[in-house]
From TrEMBL:
Cofactor section: Mg(2+); Mn(2+)
BRCT domain segment(s): 596-681
Source species, domain of life: Bacteria
Gene (name only): ligA
Catalytic function, reaction form: NAD(+) + (deoxyribonucleotide)n-3'-hydroxyl + 5'-phospho-(deoxyribonucleotide)m = (deoxyribonucleotide)n+m + AMP + beta-nicotinamide D-nucleotide
Family: Belongs to the NAD-dependent DNA ligase family. LigA subfamily.
Protein name according to UniProt: DNA ligase
Main function: DNA ligase that catalyzes the formation of phosphodiester linkages between 5'-phosphoryl and 3'-hydroxyl groups in double-stranded DNA using NAD as a coenzyme and as the energy source for the reaction. It is essential for DNA replication and repair of damaged DNA.
UniProt keywords, alphabetically: DNA damage, DNA repair, DNA replication, Ligase, Magnesium, Manganese, Metal-binding, NAD, Zinc
Length: 681
C-alpha cells in the first residue's frame, strides 16, 4: 500500500497563493465570492503556517502579508496615509486567552488589570472617511490596505455619514474608519423591490452593500439601504486625542457618527470572554450580520507601546464565530408536501458543519428559486445558516459543476398521494391537487372542513383533530361522521358529556348549504364569496363537478387561474371519492333554485367594517354577493360603498378621506331589501 504523497512546501505555498488571490479578486473586485469565509480562513491560516515554518517562501505579494486586492478600474486610486490593516483572528477561547496573555506580557502588567474595548464585528465593507475642517473631503475603500478606491460621491449619499461634523470647532483633520452594511430589514426590502421589477436579487447583505458602493453612478448607492457604523479614529489633531479608544468612540458620537450600541469596555481575560459569549447569544436577534467580535486594548498609549506586526496590530484581535456559510454538494432533491398542498424542493446535501450545526438538508423554496440559482444535482454550493432559520443555498459554484450534473424537475404527481401536481400560470408555488385525500394535507384539511364558516362542527378543535389523526381514527372528513361517543370518551380530557356533545354537533352539521360545502372542500383559491358565486351559477354540485374550464370562467369574478384550480380539484378521482363518501354518511343541503334575476351590484366593490346587530357579517357578505357585489377587505378609490357598523375604525376614516359613500346598518339593510325586490339602485 503506497503512502500518501504530500506536496512540497514551495508547491503547496504557490497553490495556496493562487487560490487565495483568485478568491480575493472574486470577493473584493467582482463582488462574487467563489468560496466561503470559513474556507478562505482555513487556506490563509495554512499559508501563514507554511511561511512561518519556511521564511524563505514568504513573498511581498503573498496574501499572508497583505490585505485584500488591488483597486478595480473605474474609480480613482486613493493612497491611505495610515495603512488599513486587518486583524488576527481567534477561533476559540484558548486563543482569546493567549491574546490577553501576550498583551499583558508586553505591557508587563497583570491580565486582570487591563481594560479592553469590545464591539461586534460587522459583516460589511470597510471604508475610510477623511474630514478637513469639519467637511467630508474623501471616502475610500480599504482595497489592499495601502491604497483603495475613491468612492467619495457614493459615500456622500449615506445618511448615516455626516457631511459636516457636529460642533462649533471641528478638528482640522480627522480620519474615521468604519463599516458600510445593509440591515436584514433593508435587505429584504431591497430584494422584494428587485423581484417586483425583475431586477437582480442579491445573495446576502454583504454582497449587496459591496456591490452598491462600487457602482459608478452615485444614484444607485443613494437608492440602496446602506448604513455606516464607525469603529476607529485613524488620525486626529493631537490636542483632540483622548486617553482611551472608548473615549474616542464617545467623541465620534458627538461629531455625529453612529457607533455600535453594543460597544462595551471590559476588564481582563474574563471580561473579553464574557463579551464574546454575549455577542454569540445575541447574534441572531440583531437586525444586521456580524461574524464575530473585535477586542482592542482600550488605553491608546498602551496601543502605541504594543505596536504592529507586518499585517496586524498587536493590541487588537477579532473573535470569529463559527462560520454561517460553508461549501458542500447537492446529492439529490426531494419534494415535500406541506399542509396546504404546496410542494417544496429540499436539497439533500453532503453533511457539513455550519455555525456549529450539522446541515444535511436545505430548502430550495420553489422552481423559480431553482432557476434563479441554476442549481443542479451534483453541484457544489454555498450553504448559509443564520440562527434557527432553515439552512438555505446562497449560490452555486458553477465552475465546479461536474459533467454528470442533473437538472431538477418538478414531479407530475404528488410524492405522497399520487394526485396531479399543478402549477398554474405565473404562480410561484406548485401544489398537490389531492386536497382532502392527501395524507400530507389531512390535518389542515380537516380543520378547515370543521371550521365555523365551513361545516361549523362545534367542539371539534385543532387539538382534538390532531389526536384523532394521530390515532388514525380519522383519515377523511367522512370518517368524522362514523365516530361514536363511547370511543371518543377514551381520549384524554374528553369526558362522556363532551363526547356526546361532539357527536350531536356532527349530526347537526350534516345539514348544510351547498355554498358552505363547496367552501369546506378546501379548493385552492376558493373562498366563501367564490363558493357562493359557484352555487348561484350552477345550482347543483354535479354540474359544478363536471364543468369545463371555459364554463367556470363565465362565473362572476372567476378568472383562468381559479378556474384551473377548481377543474383540477374535481378531476382527481380521490376528491370525487371523498365527496361521495360524505354524501353517503348523510351530508346534504337543500336544492338551490337558480333564478334568472338581475344582479344590480355587478362590478361593484363593497367593504364591511365594525359590528352589525341585525345580521352577521357573513350574512351581509352573502346577500351582497347574491346581488353581484364583490366584498373586499380594504378601502380604495375603486370602493363603491362602505357599510359601517358599531366601532368602525380605520376603514371608515379612509372612506371619509377618499369620499367613498358610507352607509349605516339601517340604511344598508333598507337598500338591500329594495334591490332584492327588484327596485333599481
Amino acid at each position: 500500500m503506497c503512502a500518501t504523497r504530500h506536496p512540497e512546501p514551495a508547491d503547496e505555498a504557490r497553490e495556496l497563493r493562487g487560490r487565495l488571490e483568485e478568491a480575493n479578486y472574486r470577493y473584493y473586485v467582482e463582488d462574487a465570492p467563489s468560496i466561503t469565509d470559513a474556507e478562505y480562513d482555513r487556506l490563509l491560516r495554512r499559508l501563514q503556517d507554511l511561511e512561518a515554518a519556511h521564511p524563505e517562501l514568504a513573498t511581498a505579494d503573498s496574501p499572508a502579508q497583505r490585505v485584500g486586492a488591488p483597486p478595480a478600474e473605474g474609480f480613482p486610486e486613493v493612497r491611505h496615509a495610515i495603512a488599513m490593516l486587518s486583524l488576527d483572528n481567534a477561533f476559540d477561547e484558548d486563543e482569546v486567552r493567549a491574546f490577553a496573555r501576550r498583551v499583558a506580557e508586553r505591557l508587563e502588567r497583570d491580565e486582570a488589570d487591563i481594560d479592553f474595548c469590545c464591539e461586534p464585528k460587522l459583516d460589511g465593507l470597510a471604508v475610510s472617511l477623511v474630514y478637513e475642517n469639519g467637511l467630508l473631503v474623501q471616502g475610500a475603500t480599504r482595497g489592499d490596505g495601502r491604497s483603495g478606491e475613491g468612492i467619495t460621491a457614493n459615500l456622500r449619499t449615506l445618511r448615516s455619514i455626516p457631511l459636516r461634523l457636529r460642533g462649533e470647532s471641528p478638528p482640522e483633520r480627522l480620519e474615521v474608519r468604519g463599516e458600510v452594511y445593509i440591515s436584514h430589514s433593508g435587505f429584504e426590502r431591497l430584494n422584494d423591490q428587485a423581484r417586483r421589477l425583475g431586477g437582480k436579487v442579491f445573495a446576502n447583505p454583504r454582497n449587496a452593500a459591496a456591490g452598491s458602493l462600487r457602482q459608478l453612478d452615485p444614484g444607485i448607492a443613494a437608492a440602496r439601504p446602506l448604513e455606516f457604523c464607525a469603529y476607529q479614529v485613524a488620525d486626529i489633531d493631537a490636542d483632540r486625542l483622548e486617553a482611551t479608544h472608548s473615549a474616542l468612540m464617545a467623541r465620534l458620537r458627538e461629531f455625529g457618527f453612529r457607533v455600535s450600541p453594543e460597544l462595551d469596555a471590559v476588564r481582563g481575560t474574563e471580561g473579553l470572554l464574557d463579551f464574546c459569549r454575549r455577542m454569540g447569544e445575541k447574534r441572531d436577534t440583531l437586525d444586521y450580520d456580524i461574524d464575530g467580535a473585535v477586542m482592542k486594548v482600550d488605553d491608546l498609549r498602551a496601543q502605541r507601546e504594543l505596536g504592529f506586526v507586518s499585517r496586524a496590530p498587536r493590541w487588537a484581535m477579532a473573535w470569529k464565530f463559527p462560520a454561517q456559510e460553508q461549501t458542500t454538494t447537492i446529492r439529490d432533491v426531494e419534494f415535500q408536501v406541506g399542509r396546504t398542498g404546496r410542494l417544496t424542493p429540499v436539497a439533500r446535501l453532503e453533511p457539513v458543519q455550519v455555525a456549529g450545526v450539522t446541515v444535511a438538508n436545505a430548502s430550495l423554496h420553489n422552481m423559480d428559486e431553482i432557476a434563479r440559482l441554476d442549481a443542479r444535482i451534483g453541484d457544489s454550493v454555498i450553504v448559509r445558516r443564520a440562527g434557527d432559520v432553515i439552512p438555505q443555498i446562497v449560490s452555486v459554484i458553477v465552475e465546479r459543476r461536474p459533467a454528470d450534473a442533473r437538472t431538477i424537475e418538478l414531479p407530475e404527481h404528488c410524492p405522497v398521494c399520487g394526485a396531479r401536481v399543478e402549477r398554474i400560470g405565473e404562480e410561484v408555488d406548485a401544489r398537490c391537487a389531492g386536497g382532502l385525500y392527501c395524507p400530507a394535507q389531512r390535518k389542515e384539511a380537516l380543520k378547515h372542513f370543521a371550521s365555523r364558516r365551513a361545516l361549523d362542527i362545534d367542539g371539534l378543535g385543532d387539538k382534538l383533530i390532531d389526536a384523532l389523526v394521530a390515532r388514525e381514527w380519522v383519515r377523511t372528513p367522512a370518517d368524522l361522521y362514523r365516530l361514536e361517543a363511547e370511543r371518543l370518551a377514551e381520549l384524554p380530557r374528553l369526558a362522556e358529556k363532551s363526547a356526546n356533545n361532539l357527536v350531536d354537533a356532527l349530526a347537526r352539521s350534516k345539514q348544510t348549504s351547498l355554498a358552505r360545502f363547496i367552501y369546506a372542500l378546501g379548493i385552492s383559491e376558493v373562498g366563501e364569496a367564490t363558493a357562493l358565486a359557484l352555487t348561484n351559477h350552477f345550482g347543483e354540485l354535479e354540474k359544478l363537478m363536471n364543468a369545463e374550464r371555459d364554463a367556470l370562467e363565465r362565473v362572476a369574478d372567476i378568472g383562468p387561474v381559479v378556474a384551473e384550480h377548481i377543474h383540477t380539484f374535481f378531476a382527481q378521482p380521490h376528491n370525487r371519492e371523498t365527496i361521495e363518501a360524505l354524501i353517503a354518511v348523510g351530508v346534504s343541503w337543500e336544492e338551490v333554485e337558480i333564478e334568472d334575476r338581475p344582479q344590480p351590484l355587478t362590478g361593484q366593490s363593497w367593504v364591511l367594517t365594525g359590528t352589525m346587530e341585525a345580521m352577521t357579517r357573513d350574512q351581509a357578505k352573502a346577500r351582497l354577493a347574491a346581488l353581484g357585489a364583490k366584498v373586499t377587505g380594504s378601502v380604495s378609490k375603486k370602493t363603491h360603498a362602505v357599510v359601517a357598523g358599531e366601532a368602525a375604525g380605520s376603514k371608515l376614516e379612509k372612506a371619509q378621506q377618499l369620499g367613498v359613500e358610507v352607509l349605516a346598518e339601517a340604511a344598508f339593510i333598507a337598500r338591500l331589501e329594495r334591490l332584492e325586490q327588484g327596485e333599481s339602485e
